[in-house]
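Reading a protein record of the kind used here takes only a little practice. Think of the row as the fold of the chain written in a discrete alphabet. A record is reproduced here so that you can trace the correspondence yourselves:
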Amino acid sequence: MATTTDVPSEPPPQASSARHIPGETGLWIVLLGDMTVFAVLFLVYLQHRGQHSALFAASQCTLNGDLATINTLVLLSSSVLVVLATRVVRTPQRHYAPRLLVGAIALGLAFVGIKAIEYHHLFAAGITSHMNSFFVYYFTLTGLHLAHLCAGLIVLAVLLTLSRKRELTTGQYKLFEGGACFWHMLDLIWLIIFPLVFLVR
């Protein structure tokens, strides 16, 4: 007769390690919508570039690639600070989060200032979106990104307010993560605009 010790027992169920997705589902719908708009603009730009390659190449030469390169480094640096702030905001080192976000906001404002200088140089040379089709796309892509970035600065200001709280609730932390994801999306979009508009010949 078999005893209970002879019957093999099933291993205890293990908890499934669900992958953490930052932010809320609604936020990702908004981000996907934004990225879709830019993706369509990129495709249309490439199509017209193929049809008018000489015009686009000549027009690119009038752009200030140095300022665009500086802005790329500025935006990348701001994203690094946002990543660090997101990591520490719920740890014993959370007092660093406000400082990191202030730095990210300062770099974001620097991006806006440098872009304003770039636009000023073009306008002073008589170059506007009416010049040719390249500049229609240039001002559309960079202007739309700049508008999103200004909205992103408001988002960072909200995150700065949250980071000064003693402790974040789960909902507040999701909001924090979502705001950080929005800022990273702006970085990603710029990393496509920069080579596409300023570098590719």
Summary: The longest helix spans residues 133-163. The mean pLDDT is 88.
